[in-house]
Amino acid sequence: TFIHSDRDEASKLDVFEEGAIGVNSEGVIEFVERDAKDVDGVVDKHPSFKDAEVVRTESGRRQFFFPGFIDTHIHAPQYPNAGVFGSSTLLDWLNKYTFPREASLSSLSVARTIYSRCVARTLSHGTTTAAYYATIHVPATNLLADICSAAGQRAFVGRVCMDHKDINPDYYRDESADESITNTCLCIDHIKKIDPNYELVSPIITPRFAPSCTTEALQKLGKLVKETGLPCQTHISENRNEIQLVKKLFPEYGSYAEVYDAFGLLTPKMILGHAIHLSKKEMELIRSRDAKVSHCPVSNSALTSGGAKVRWLMNGGITVGLGTDVSGGYSPSILEAVRATTLVSRHVALSDGDECKLSVEESLYLATRGGAKVVGLENKIGGFEVGMEWDAQLIGLELVETTGDEFSEGDAEGEVVDKVVFEGPKSAGPVDVFGWETWDDKVAKWVYNGDDRNTLGVWVKGRKVWSRE
Ligand code: GUN
Ligand code: FE
């Protein structure tokens, strides 16, 4: 069984229950058979697949393949901090938790531990592509690229630029704009060496956010974006105090978005994290430049940043994907971000109207096809079509479908309590708690009740990179 988002209609899941997909040795999908009850018939039609390895979903409508998740905004060095943010908001959170943590990756052995755990964990949650912020450190950033490459995760790896002396702490910043550029280029060169065509791992130019960069650095980074044609990522309009800070630091520009635009950073390859408090004019500017937005609802809730108006952005014509924003976000799971997307949209709906509610299907679209567009890979990943690459996860619903039997009398260790019997006025008789659902219902149960235990296997570019066994 294969389930993916419809290419054109974000609110629709396309399900083919007894299909077959042929993936060649390059990881590229060669055929998609929507009705393939017997494998022999499929092989007759595609003889070059005669000796292919066959991976089957279990019969009984409890397993399905789904496209791998795309995390369009995650800070790998912050992974150990996931869940630790107290009652802080963005600017004090950066100083209290984030900068000290990131500074610790000046040690390559610290970086190795953190980055290998982060990549393994995101893979286990079905994240087949991630746009990573690393730190200012060149050796550690290069190591993150090496680890992604070895683990087989598709990744954009960004060496973070932050040279402003008044905003960044002395113990963790670039000494100059030139240092931002030189060190960014060293990381680009490293990835060029390990993955010359950026097939799996690509560099991404990463000014942390406008306040952390001097005018000179932003100017030079804009030039580098133009010269290299590389993607770029940063933060925008996440927090009200941050917006005030941008006003103070860049008084000559009309808005936060105009600061990035002035330096040539608003391009179709720009990924803007958060975009919560944009004015209509900023939204239209971002749209006119075709810059993309990474929606990070878990982080935006945790740090009290606000609820991004995703429907408004989408109606405005902006391309949106999802990000975990670890560790502003407390979870490395995009499934959790999908769940938070639907919930935050409901809070937004309370003030802005019911049409703001995002469905499970739409949120899954953002996590796959939307994310693919955000990272510029919509023709390669995010769905199952001929010519695309096999980035997928095998989902099993067994753990969502706990019957409760395993908690019945006698199973628990220690004292056995009397079995509780609920005696209602009328018995409803036997009830099918599971197995009655449509596929859309099953997917909704996965989204709202599932976690990484449901992710049984993960493939990137046809290679199996994670298995639950
Ligand atoms: N703005 C600048 N740096 C950061 C960061 O590390 N995380 C988040 N969420 N916002 C930021
Ligand atoms: Fe972030």
Automatic annotation (TrEMBL):
One of its GO terms (molecular function) is zinc ion binding. Its EC number is 3.5.4.3. GO terms for cellular component: cytosol. It catalyses: guanine + H2O + H(+) = xanthine + NH4(+). Its cofactor is Zn(2+). It comes from Orbilia javanica. Pfam families: Amidohydro_1 (PF01979). Homodimer. This is Guanine deaminase. Pathway: Purine metabolism; guanine degradation; xanthine from guanine: step 1/1. It is an enzyme of class 3 (hydrolase). Belongs to the metallo-dependent hydrolases superfamily. ATZ/TRZ family. GO terms for biological process: guanine catabolic process.
